[in-house]
Amino acid sequence: MQMRTLTLAILAATTPLLAQAYDLPAVNLGFTSFLDGAPPAGNGWYFTQYIQQYHADKFKDNSGDSLALPKPKVDVTVSLSQILYISDINVAGANLGLDVIVPVVSPHTSYGASNSAFPKAGESGVGDLLIGPFLQWAPIMGEQGPKFMHRVELQFILPTGEYSSKSEINPGSNTWSFNPYWSGTYFFTPEWTASVRAHYLWNGKNDDPNRGFEALGARTTRAGQAFHTNFAMEYAFTPQLRLGINGYYLKQTTDTQMNGDDVKGRREQVLALGLGGVYSFSKENHLMFNFYDEMAVKNRTEGERYNLRFVHHF
Asked: What is the DSSP string of 74-133?
């Protein structure tokens, strides 16, 4: 077993361009930020529309150095349409709810020279469906209003998205994932808050590996587990406008597997920091905007994200 694992590591190291890129499925990096511990208007139905633009011009290796690719560019536009419902059903002192998200993803890659071994983007299309039951606890109140609010969701990512083994970057991942999270918001004052959402990711097997793994003799792959979190702090300058800082962090915690064996040197990592805000048109309608600049990247692309999120309560 040790010799087989060593052979896989050597193969991966000697096929760097095809082997490198995007083991983990797409997850929530920066989509959520401010006041994340509870929806803004209590129980009932919500519709949220997200638009995120990601641009990168670097592919980083396991040491955090840029791969020798000629003028690489990666652009991904993501649209998420979310329906969320919080019921009056009480479970463990919290209200039971359901969250459903449908992504549409448009990826694109380009380079300053042509080489079929460079990481390739697949066709645009519908991404993997996200669905999860959750428990939303009522806010803990203080003398001046809410002090703390939080939620737990058991989120599943289903392999319903467009996927091609001929590409490393696809709308779908061709595997199921379990990505539960806890989210909370703390009010230092009515104007000043901090929020955190912490996920842990488990992934199933992909029985149709992408061409990079196929070149290494893969019949199946399994992306490693990962911890990822979004965090934000903001201040209400007016009753309608809150501005602050936001960020995200992802750290892969176990190795990617190929044919059941660990492949070393592929664990992903990224930290991003930026600025953002919330504008509340009313209690039922809110617009959030975020900018993120990535750093401390390993085995991923490094770039910037721009995010818009509109929330409506029916």
From this structure: EEEEEEEEEEEEEEEEEETTEEEEEEEEEEEEEEEEE-SS--TTS--B---EE--EEEEE
Q: What is the DSSP letter of 223?
A: P
CATH value at residue 221: 2.40.160.40
pLDDT in tens, 265-314: 999 999 999 999 999 999 999 999 999 999 999 999 999 999 999 999 99
Residue 19 C-alpha from the chain's centroid:
22
Amino acid at 223: A
Q: Is 108:75 a contact under the CB 8 Å cutoff? A: yes
Radius of gyration of the chain (CA): 20
Closest alpha carbon to 153 in 176, 137, 171: 137
Q: What's the length of the chain?
A: 314
CA atoms within 13 A on the CB side of 165: 14
Split at pLDDT 50, 70, 90, the class of 216 is: confident
State the residue range of the domain holding 77. Answer: 2-313
Burial of 63: CB neighbours in 10 Å, binned 0-12, 13-18, 19+: exposed
pTM value is: 0.92
3-state secondary structure of 27: coil
Helix (H, G, I), strand (E, B) or coil at 160: coil
Q: How far apart are CA 256 and CA 20, in angstroms?
A: 12
> Count of domains in the chain?
1
Measured CA to CA, the distance from residue 123 to residue 125 in angstroms comes to 6
d(CA 299, CA 256): 12
